[in-house]
Every structure is written in C-alpha cells, then in structure tokens.
C-alpha cells in the first residue's frame, strides 16, 4: 500500500511540473518532413493547402520565435516560403492559409513532431507532422507519432507519407 501511495504521489508531482523549455539545439537545423496527418485529410492530400514540406527550422531568442523554411507544391513546382512564428506560452502562432497555432514536440535527438491547429475562418483543422534530421525514422518514432495523433483525435488512416512527393531543393 505504501508503494502504491508513493507511486501516485510521484505521478501527481510530475504532472504539476512546468513544461521543459525548448533548447534551440533541439529545434534549429535542417529537417525533412516524413509524415503528416490531419482530421480533415483533404487539406494535406497532394495539392491541399496544408501539405507543406518543412526543410529548416531556426530558433531565435531562446526559441521565443522560430523561422520556418518550407515548400508547397503548385502545379508540380516547388515554391519556397518562409514564415516566422512567435511563441506565446508553449504555443507558437503564425499566418499561413489562415491562423496557425502549433506546438513543437521533440521526440528524439533526430525527430520532432509538430501539432498544429489551422483556423481558416470557416473550420479548424488539426494537423501533425513528423520531421527527421536525415532521411528516415525508426518504428518506435512512428509509433510515438501515431500515439500523438490518437491523443489529438486524428485518425491513423489520415496519415500521408511526404517522403514520396518531396522532390523540392534542399
């Protein structure tokens, strides 16, 4: 009984700890979009407005803002876009195809997940991306990403593999 009580006490204390601060070294660098998922799949399918290929993130001022270099495809041509997101608490916000509010979630030394909510004036769409430094991810990292989607209400069948269509310049 004493062990159960101490375990519960530890969980309560851990749940009350403030979130860990993002380290610029966890975020800044060249990335490759591996997977994306959304509760409104049409937004991330080929030609969809939220199908983006992130290639670089850069933290500034202790990650109070993040510069994002990404591509979209328009008529099979890669168009380079840059955005700067400002942090408010644990959430970043920027404008692209509406208002976007997102969290950066380091998953390992080489992977990062992004959970975003896009508000286009009509509908809010939940979107995630799994990014990697390099070309691939492990099965464990994919499982972590799928769990994130499940927690956020995004069906597994709404996942798209971005590696098959990202032929944009590095």
Write the layout of secondary structure elements.
Layout: H1 2-16, H2 24-27, E1 29-30, E2 32-38, E3 53-60, E4 65-74, E5 77-88, E6 91-95, E7 99-106, E8 111-119, E9 124-132, H3 139-151, E10 159-161
Antiparallel strand pairs: 1-3, 2-9, 2-10, 3-4, 4-5, 5-6, 6-7, 7-8, 8-9
Explain this structure to me?
The protein has 170 residues and is an alpha+beta fold. The chain has helices spanning 2-16, 24-27, 139-151; strands spanning 29-30, 32-38, 53-60, 65-74, 77-88, 91-95, 99-106, 111-119, 124-132, 159-161. It has one domain: Calycin beta-barrel core domain (Lipocalin, Beta Barrel), CATH 2.40.128.20. The chain has a ten-stranded antiparallel sheet with strand order 1-3-4-5-6-7-8-9-2-10.
Short description:
With 170 residues, the chain is of the alpha+beta class. It has three helices and ten strands.
Assign the CATH superfamily: Calycin beta-barrel core domain
What's the CATH C level?
Mainly Beta
Count of beta strands: 10
Largest sheet: 10 strands, antiparallel
Shape: globular
Q: Beta fraction of the residues?
A: 35-45%
In sequence order, what are the helices and strands, one letter per element?
A: HHEEEEEEEEEHE
CATH architecture: Beta Barrel
Distance N to C terminus: 57 Å
State the low-pLDDT regions, or none: 1-19
Proportion in helices: 10-25%
Major sheet strand order: 1-3-4-5-6-7-8-9-2-10
Mean pLDDT: 87
**CATH fold label:** Lipocalin
- Number of self-contained structural domains: 1
Tell me the structural class: alpha+beta
Q: Helix tally?
A: 3
Radius of gyration: 17 Å
